[in-house]
Design goal:
With 140 residues, the protein is of the alpha+beta class. The chain has one domain (13-113). The protein is 14% helix and 27% strand. The chain contains three helices and five strands. The protein has helices at residues 3-6, 14-17, 59-69; strands at residues 22-34, 41-48, 55-56, 79-86, 104-110. A five-stranded antiparallel beta sheet has the order 3-2-1-4-5. The longest helix is centred in the middle third of the chain and has 11 residues, at 59-69.
């Protein structure tokens, strides 16, 4: 038995995803309450058709989905790609977690015309590396 089978997780974490990319189909979006009492917060959360752990959305992910698919009522059935990237501070330096490791954050992208887990879907290793417009690859 593997760790993931013994301790089934309910929510996706950037650390669990690591450098991999997932292609999944959205089942629904709903607000989930985290915390108790005065500290309780409702956060938008995506649930997926294939049983992949749910993704608690950050503002950047919400904006990307809204730009691609419109109102959240229209998201069910949409296929998306989920990946992580290193978090950077304002100076471009990696943000470190409490264990002094680089922190990662989620990014989502619409996969228009591709079904999740279909033969046409690219495998994570086959996806091209994304480059920002400001990446000049200056060697130092």
């Amino acid at each position: 038995m593997r760790f993931a089978q013994a301790f089934e997780q309910q929510y996706l974490t950037a650390g669990d995803l690591g450098e991999r990319t997932l292609v999944v189909k959205i089942d629904r979006m709903q607000k989930v309450t985290f915390g108790k009492g005065a500290d309780a917060k409702n956060k938008p959360t995506l649930f997926f058709e294939d049983g992949t752990p749910a993704l608690v959305l950050n503002k950047d992910c919400w904006r990307a989905l809204e730009q691609a698919f419109g109102d959240s009522d229209d998201w069910p059935g949409a296929t998306i790609e989920i990946r992580t990237e290193a978090m950077l501070d304002r100076d471009g330096n990696p943000v470190l977690d409490r264990n002094n490791n680089p922190s990662r954050t989620f990014r989502v992208r619409a996969r228009l015309g591709v079904e999740a887990n279909s033969a046409d879907a690219e495998k994570p290793a086959d996806l091209p590396a994304e480059r920002g417009d400001l990446d000049d690859e200056i060697p130092f």
